[in-house]
Amino acid sequence: MGQETHASGKILKCPKCSKPLEAVLRDGAEVDLCASCRGIWVEHFEEKQVLEIKPEAFSMDELERLRKHYVPLGRLEKVRYVPCPACNVLMNRKIWGSYSGVVVDVCSEHGTWYDVQELEKVKEYVLLGGVEYEKMVKMDQGFSAVHAKLVQETVRLDQRIDSAYRRARLWSLIGL
Ligand SMILES: [Zn+2]
Ligand SMILES: [Zn+2]
Predict the structure, then answer these.
(1) How far does the centroid of ligand 1 lie from the alpha carbon of residue 48, in Å?
(2) How many domains does the chain have?
(3) Residue 166: what pLDDT?
């Protein structure tokens, strides 16, 4: 698709190495890739599609373990603020979600910059129920009510073909 331009007609540049970004398709959504550092720029409206965020249900135990697994994924790197490819204003550094351990650069107006591998890590976090875990933590409900509901949901999910795969994946990740 070639070089990516903003609505203003200006070429979008990589916030990390200033090379022009190239538009590529990721899971049906258009994102902008830096061919040099492999970082990816995802506009806010495309994020849901790129990360395949959809409601799923996991047991409380699975979600608790997920949290323990993901926190250490955060990388120890020197903090460096980089400009938004669209408006050039320095972006905020934020942990994606609350527990992914992945720190991304976010322009509140335009989108999110993922360094190489970060988009994959966040996708895995989403696939393993990270978004649901965050919602659950935020929910102002008693533990038992939530737990009962989740157990119910898990039983229902058990009957689904893909749940076996997903569990196997989770167990292998947390080393059980
Ligand atoms: Zn780059
Ligand atoms: Zn911006």
Answers:
(1) 23
(2) 1
(3) 62
